[in-house]
Design a protein that fits this description.
Layout (H helix, E strand, L loop, with lengths): L14 H28 L10 H13 L11 H21 L6 E3 L2 E6 L4 E6 L5 H9 L3 E3 L4 E5 L2 H8 L28
Antiparallel strand pairs: 1-2, 2-3, 3-5, 4-5
Amino acid sequence: MSYERTKPSNEPLSAEKLTEELNKCVESQTTMKEVNAYWRKTGTCMGAPGITEAQAKKLDEKIAATRYSWEKQPFSTYDLTNNNSKIKRLQQSLAEASRGFEGWEFNGGRAEANTEMNRLQLFFDERPNDNQRALLKASGFKWAPSQDAWQRQLTDNAIYAAGRLDFIKPSDGRTVREHQPKAPSRDTGAR
Protein backbone atom coordinates (compact mmCIF):
# COMPACT_ATOMS: atom_id res chain seq x y z
CA MET A 1 0.00 0.00 0.00
CA SER A 2 1.53 3.28 -1.10
CA TYR A 3 0.91 6.58 0.60
CA GLU A 4 2.73 8.63 -2.02
CA ARG A 5 0.97 11.67 -3.34
CA THR A 6 -0.28 11.12 -6.84
CA LYS A 7 -0.55 13.71 -9.58
CA PRO A 8 -4.22 14.47 -10.26
CA SER A 9 -5.40 13.36 -13.66
CA ASN A 10 -7.20 15.69 -16.01
CA GLU A 11 -9.29 12.78 -17.23
CA PRO A 12 -12.69 12.67 -15.54
CA LEU A 13 -13.57 9.49 -13.74
CA SER A 14 -16.61 7.33 -14.36
CA ALA A 15 -18.82 6.35 -11.42
CA GLU A 16 -17.09 2.96 -11.26
CA LYS A 17 -13.63 4.53 -11.14
CA LEU A 18 -14.79 7.13 -8.61
CA THR A 19 -16.09 4.35 -6.36
CA GLU A 20 -12.84 2.43 -6.71
CA GLU A 21 -10.76 5.52 -5.90
CA LEU A 22 -13.04 6.36 -2.95
CA ASN A 23 -12.64 2.85 -1.53
CA LYS A 24 -8.84 3.12 -1.80
CA CYS A 25 -8.85 6.45 0.03
CA VAL A 26 -11.14 5.17 2.79
CA GLU A 27 -8.94 2.10 3.22
CA SER A 28 -5.84 4.30 3.29
CA GLN A 29 -7.42 6.59 5.92
CA THR A 30 -8.27 3.62 8.12
CA THR A 31 -4.78 2.16 7.79
CA MET A 32 -3.09 5.49 8.57
CA LYS A 33 -5.22 5.91 11.71
CA GLU A 34 -4.52 2.33 12.84
CA VAL A 35 -0.77 2.69 12.28
CA ASN A 36 -0.70 5.98 14.20
CA ALA A 37 -2.66 4.41 17.09
CA TYR A 38 -0.35 1.36 17.09
CA TRP A 39 2.73 3.61 17.12
CA ARG A 40 1.37 5.64 20.07
CA LYS A 41 0.93 2.40 22.06
CA THR A 42 4.18 0.65 21.12
CA GLY A 43 6.58 3.35 19.92
CA THR A 44 7.24 1.44 16.69
CA CYS A 45 5.44 0.64 13.46
CA MET A 46 6.74 -2.97 13.35
CA GLY A 47 3.73 -5.26 13.56
CA ALA A 48 1.22 -2.52 12.81
CA PRO A 49 -1.91 -3.74 10.97
CA GLY A 50 -2.22 -3.06 7.26
CA ILE A 51 1.42 -2.42 6.39
CA THR A 52 4.40 -4.59 5.47
CA GLU A 53 7.62 -4.85 7.48
CA ALA A 54 9.44 -2.81 4.85
CA GLN A 55 6.86 -0.04 5.11
CA ALA A 56 7.02 -0.18 8.91
CA LYS A 57 10.82 0.08 8.84
CA LYS A 58 10.65 3.05 6.46
CA LEU A 59 8.11 4.81 8.71
CA ASP A 60 10.21 4.17 11.83
CA GLU A 61 13.27 5.63 10.07
CA LYS A 62 11.23 8.67 9.01
CA ILE A 63 10.14 9.28 12.60
CA ALA A 64 13.70 8.92 13.92
CA ALA A 65 15.04 11.36 11.31
CA THR A 66 12.39 14.01 12.03
CA ARG A 67 13.75 16.97 13.96
CA TYR A 68 10.44 18.52 14.90
CA SER A 69 8.61 17.27 17.96
CA TRP A 70 5.17 17.89 16.48
CA GLU A 71 5.87 15.47 13.60
CA LYS A 72 6.61 12.46 15.78
CA GLN A 73 4.07 10.06 14.33
CA PRO A 74 4.08 7.84 11.23
CA PHE A 75 1.41 9.77 9.36
CA SER A 76 1.17 13.48 10.06
CA THR A 77 -2.05 15.33 10.67
CA TYR A 78 -1.89 16.93 7.23
CA ASP A 79 -1.64 13.47 5.59
CA LEU A 80 -4.87 12.47 7.31
CA THR A 81 -6.54 15.83 6.60
CA ASN A 82 -5.57 15.81 2.92
CA ASN A 83 -6.79 12.25 2.46
CA ASN A 84 -10.05 13.06 4.24
CA SER A 85 -10.55 16.06 1.94
CA LYS A 86 -9.96 13.82 -1.06
CA ILE A 87 -12.59 11.39 0.30
CA LYS A 88 -15.12 14.23 0.58
CA ARG A 89 -14.35 15.47 -2.97
CA LEU A 90 -14.77 11.94 -4.35
CA GLN A 91 -18.06 11.49 -2.49
CA GLN A 92 -19.32 14.78 -3.93
CA SER A 93 -18.21 13.81 -7.45
CA LEU A 94 -19.88 10.42 -7.07
CA ALA A 95 -23.13 12.04 -5.91
CA GLU A 96 -22.98 14.43 -8.87
CA ALA A 97 -22.28 11.58 -11.30
CA SER A 98 -25.19 9.55 -9.98
CA ARG A 99 -27.66 12.44 -10.27
CA GLY A 100 -28.49 11.53 -13.83
CA PHE A 101 -28.07 14.51 -16.12
CA GLU A 102 -30.37 14.50 -19.13
CA GLY A 103 -29.94 15.56 -22.73
CA TRP A 104 -32.23 17.66 -24.93
CA GLU A 105 -33.04 18.39 -28.56
CA PHE A 106 -32.20 21.80 -30.00
CA ASN A 107 -32.68 23.41 -33.40
CA GLY A 108 -30.02 21.77 -35.56
CA GLY A 109 -28.93 18.99 -33.23
CA ARG A 110 -29.09 17.36 -29.84
CA ALA A 111 -27.28 17.38 -26.50
CA GLU A 112 -26.52 14.11 -24.72
CA ALA A 113 -25.36 13.46 -21.19
CA ASN A 114 -22.88 10.63 -21.75
CA THR A 115 -22.48 9.29 -18.20
CA GLU A 116 -20.25 6.44 -19.40
CA MET A 117 -17.61 8.94 -20.53
CA ASN A 118 -18.69 11.63 -18.04
CA ARG A 119 -19.21 14.13 -20.85
CA LEU A 120 -21.88 16.57 -22.00
CA GLN A 121 -21.84 16.06 -25.77
CA LEU A 122 -23.32 18.33 -28.42
CA PHE A 123 -24.13 16.75 -31.79
CA PHE A 124 -24.89 19.15 -34.66
CA ASP A 125 -26.65 18.24 -37.92
CA GLU A 126 -24.34 20.66 -39.74
CA ARG A 127 -21.00 22.17 -38.83
CA PRO A 128 -21.43 25.16 -36.47
CA ASN A 129 -20.42 28.52 -37.97
CA ASP A 130 -17.26 30.36 -36.89
CA ASN A 131 -19.07 32.46 -34.28
CA GLN A 132 -20.78 29.40 -32.76
CA ARG A 133 -17.48 27.48 -32.63
CA ALA A 134 -15.83 30.43 -30.88
CA LEU A 135 -18.66 30.52 -28.33
CA LEU A 136 -18.42 26.75 -27.77
CA LYS A 137 -14.67 27.04 -27.15
CA ALA A 138 -15.17 30.00 -24.82
CA SER A 139 -17.69 27.91 -22.86
CA GLY A 140 -15.21 25.08 -22.36
CA PHE A 141 -16.41 22.74 -25.10
CA LYS A 142 -13.81 21.02 -27.26
CA TRP A 143 -14.21 19.25 -30.57
CA ALA A 144 -13.76 15.47 -30.23
CA PRO A 145 -13.34 13.95 -33.70
CA SER A 146 -13.50 10.43 -32.26
CA GLN A 147 -17.01 11.17 -30.94
CA ASP A 148 -18.01 13.53 -33.76
CA ALA A 149 -19.23 15.91 -31.05
CA TRP A 150 -18.41 19.03 -29.11
CA GLN A 151 -18.01 18.01 -25.49
CA ARG A 152 -16.84 18.89 -22.01
CA GLN A 153 -16.82 17.19 -18.63
CA LEU A 154 -20.34 16.48 -17.37
CA THR A 155 -20.76 18.77 -14.37
CA ASP A 156 -23.18 21.41 -13.15
CA ASN A 157 -20.87 24.02 -14.70
CA ALA A 158 -21.21 22.33 -18.10
CA ILE A 159 -25.00 22.56 -17.80
CA TYR A 160 -24.81 26.24 -16.83
CA ALA A 161 -22.41 26.93 -19.72
CA ALA A 162 -24.73 25.18 -22.17
CA GLY A 163 -27.66 27.19 -20.84
CA ARG A 164 -25.88 30.43 -21.77
CA LEU A 165 -25.53 29.41 -25.43
CA ASP A 166 -28.65 30.55 -27.30
CA PHE A 167 -28.09 28.34 -30.35
CA ILE A 168 -28.35 25.11 -28.28
CA LYS A 169 -31.40 26.07 -26.23
CA PRO A 170 -33.96 23.23 -26.03
CA SER A 171 -36.53 23.29 -28.81
CA ASP A 172 -39.37 22.44 -26.42
CA GLY A 173 -39.26 25.91 -24.84
CA ARG A 174 -37.86 24.82 -21.48
CA THR A 175 -34.44 25.91 -20.28
CA VAL A 176 -31.40 23.64 -20.20
CA ARG A 177 -31.54 23.68 -16.40
CA GLU A 178 -35.21 22.59 -16.39
CA HIS A 179 -34.19 19.45 -18.28
CA GLN A 180 -31.91 18.41 -15.41
CA PRO A 181 -32.85 16.65 -12.19
CA LYS A 182 -32.97 18.81 -9.10
CA ALA A 183 -29.74 19.02 -7.17
CA PRO A 184 -29.93 17.61 -3.67
CA SER A 185 -30.23 20.37 -1.09
CA ARG A 186 -27.20 20.94 1.08
CA ASP A 187 -27.46 21.01 4.83
CA THR A 188 -25.87 24.35 5.64
CA GLY A 189 -26.02 23.95 9.42
CA ALA A 190 -24.38 26.30 11.91
CA ARG A 191 -20.74 27.11 11.49
